[in-house]
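Appendix B. Chain record.
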Amino acid sequence: MAAGPRILITGFGPFPGAPVNPTAAMMEALAADPAALDGLGEIRTEILAVEYDKVPERLAGIAAGFAPDIAIHFGLSARAEGFTLERLARNEIAAGRPDNSGAQPQAACIVENGEDHPSTLPLEEIAAALSRAGLPHSWSDNAGGYLCNYIFYLSRSPHFGAYMPPVSGFVHVPPLTGEGAPENAMSLEDLVAGARLIAETCAGDWRSVRAAAR
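Structure tokens predicted for this chain:
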């Protein structure tokens, strides 16, 4: 069997309008139970600051010391229906949404004359695995104009050479269950189970591709 891949799994901390970010809790749970991902490869989890200036620098630092083969980025969407599998990183930043530092970019392209880029995660296989586990999922071609789409684009664009995981993509998740939670909310247990399943599916696909190339 091929050696396991280096897998980076990220979430975000709280941000304006979302004082609780389930993806931070997901990363903490994954880090607290590394045995649950044992055998997949070398795993690294990160909780990223919701700040435009800090994200590229942090990803470059991770790349320098870890160089992930697979990057699975998670973010919160109040409208997400289960695990929302984002298919397209769009070259766009929306205006009017300040980050945690108060920075508020004007509506613009992330890269001048840059193209949109598709996810390279094995999305069909992920969707099938989630369905088998009884975990809800949906599809999207619009990851928004905030930092979720921003990190998705950074991970897929060739313009950010310091951080170039061969396989990368983005998954939105809904809010956590609890008092006053919306109908689409999910428990932390299910969110963590889904994240592990997504990582397992990506690792399996990575091994299959490497084996076929031999």
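Further analysis of this model is presented in Appendix C.
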